[in-house]
Amino acid sequence: MVVLGGGKGVGQMLGLGRKGGVGQILAAVAAALVLRLFSGPGPALLPEDDGDGESDDVEAQNTGKSPPVTLRWSNITCSLSDKSSKAVRFLLKDLSGEAEPGRLLAIMGPSGSGKTTLLNVLAGQIVASPRLHISGLLEVNGRPISNRSFKFAYVRQEDLFFSQLTVRETLSLAAELQLQEISSVEERDEYVNKLLFKIGLVSCADSRVGDAKVRGISGGEKKRLSLACELIASPPVIFADEPTTGRSICSKYRAMGLGGLGLGSLDAFQAEKVMETLRQLAQDGHTVICSIHQPRGSVYAKFDDIVLLTEGALVYAGPAHDEPLAYFSKFGFV
Ligand SMILES: Nc1ncnc2c1ncn2[C@@H]1O[C@H](COP(=O)(O)OP(=O)(O)OP(=O)(O)O)[C@@H](O)[C@H]1O
Known about the structure:
This protein is an alpha/beta fold. The protein has a single domain, classed as 3-Layer(aba) Sandwich (Rossmann fold). The chain has helices at residues 10-13, 21-38, 56-63, 115-122, 167-178, 185-199, 219-231, 251-255, 268-283, 297-300, 323-329; strands at 71-81, 88-99, 104-108, 132-140, 143-144, 152-155, 158-161, 237-241, 247-250, 287-292, 305-310, 313-319. It has a six-stranded mixed beta sheet, sandwiched between helices. Strands 2-1-4-5 form a four-stranded antiparallel beta sheet. Strands 7-9 form a two-stranded parallel sheet. Helix 5 (167-178) packs across helix 6 (185-199). It is globular, with a radius of gyration of 21 Å. 38% of the residues are buried. Bound molecules: adenosine-5'-triphosphate. The site of adenosine-5'-triphosphate has 12 residues, from helix 4. Adenosine-5'-triphosphate is lined by residues 80, 91, 109, 111-117, 291, 293. It comes from Actinidia rufa. Pfam families: ABC_tran.
């Protein structure tokens, strides 16, 4: 297999090897951007450290492999008060549930029902403030969560890439930044090749990512590239916010405040491929949680479990497939 760019260093890939004031400033800005881009999401915030000082990350570091993670949440409530603190709006109401390794859990519900809010609370992406109050219990493998107790990937609705890099270069750059233990170029190229195969990106490996102006890889391929970048750190848990939404923002346009470029849903084929990738990751032992709005039947068929919300409240939590139909028919909703 021809490897293009896999062996380049970060500076070379970004074309920032020249000396001089402007070049150095650009290099520093780009390096900061790249680090921000490929560093994991912020730490989980809810609830506080269990205080035993131990972390499953330590185990992961010692064995080089992250242990499977079962996430359990109980009585999660999230409320927002207005400026005068007189009116309180409940975004999540007393939610409980569980996500297990080897299973794909979909958080479903109408627009505004709280899917993204729940996903963000579970991933520790919501910062409590005087106006935003979060309560409840979140457990990892039966223990109250600590701030660094599990590694996770968070695939956002927007995909953010350097549009001029190829898929392979993007992954190689992410691996160079994240996998300090891989020092040789050959090892890194081999790692990237395996990842390309695992995520199904071999056929477009040497295509430019592209942006709104220069046609590059498809929306579905961008989504899977996002996933691949997040998988480099081998996280046992994967959160994906609306993975069938193909929204792409190139760094240049984001800097110009043009974040909405390329908005839209993936077509049926791409949406199914992205969900199939998530399903396979679940089958590999990851705990996969995604939020999704109105999935097609073929996409729904890939879910193992669902959490169904309406106006922040739980309607159903349990196995997917035909079980929800049987559950609702008990209440006369056939
Ligand atoms: N920080 C916030 N400030 C004000 N309102 C918020 C905030 N976060 C969430 N909301 C509100 O909470 C509700 C749930 O939002 P959320 O994004 O979780 O819904 P969703 O089910 O993911 O919707 P969609 O499918 O449209 O993305 C919405 O009405 C939203 O406007």
